[in-house]
Prior knowledge:
The structure holds 2 protein chains of 2 kinds.
Chain A (H helix, E strand, L loop, with lengths): L4 E2 L5 E4 L5 H12 L4 H13 L4 E8 L2 E11 L8 E9 L8 H15 L5 E3 L6 H9 L18
Parallel strand pairs in A: 5-6
Antiparallel strand pairs in A: 1-2, 2-3, 3-4, 4-5
Chain B lengths: L4 H15 L7 H7 L4 H13 L3 E4 L5 E4 L8 H8 L17 H23 L2 H18 L1
Antiparallel strand pairs in B: 1-2
Helix pairs in contact in B: 1-3, 1-4, 1-6, 2-3
Amino acid sequence: MSAIEKTRHDFTIRGAEPGDLGAIVEIDQQVSGAKKTRYWRDALELYSSHRDKGFFLVAEREHRVAGFILGEIRAWEFGSPPCGWVYAIGVARANLLEGVGTQLLDALCAHFQKANVDKVRTMIARQDHELLSFFRSYGMMAGPYQQLELELGSH
Amino acid sequence: MNLQRATRLALYAVLELADQPDKQLSRAEIAEKFEVSGNHLSKVMRDLGKAGLVEAVRGVGGGYWFSGNAKRTTLMDVIKIFEPARFENAGEREPGKATDLGRTLNLVLDEINETIQATLNSISIQTMLQIKNRSMIHSSRGG
């Protein structure tokens, strides 16, 4: 990904770089409450070397990272034709309600479409009404798959 | 999932009014569009008024307008006005609940309830109108 996109709110959407690690960890910590430096360092390394399938983008204004989004194209998992997955999205508390999340998701979807993928999916905790509302307002609806899980050792 | 008639009517009224924020709609106009009696609608509008979701201007040329926050008001907010107990531990005192089978059945029913609640809590009035507008675009392209 080489294109740098200037957005209508003066945020620049660009590919994440190793130097963004601190900001990404901090934003994620604001959202999730957990500090996951190693996880994000590994993700940055992985997705900067596989930019054909995975997209790790950040929104930046005046050299400050205001948000990030991580997504990937996966094919034939769960029997599904190639589709884009949104793995994570985060917006700095100071930049909430400025349209950062929408601009990041717009940019990610544009990359998916450029790769001839016509569907995007994500998975959100049922209790996370705020994030659910965000994706709903973007137009996402329940898909044809249902997530199931098992407490291992329970049977 | 079925909604009571008053709840469904309340959702229609709120959505119709929120879709036309610059316009006041009379009780008769809303009743005619959704094929209900004016009397039935009156009670619904009164309850919506008490909840702060609609306001009325009386007299000639008067009518209702949406006074809530379309971005922040969810389908669940409206449903709870008319069916406050719908999602409260359904079957709490039902016979058989304390049995193994009763507990197992409730496990599955709770799972369904949680999914429904998450959906209703995450769809705002504004999102509903966006869905409606997108569906209209799709059907006009298709037809």
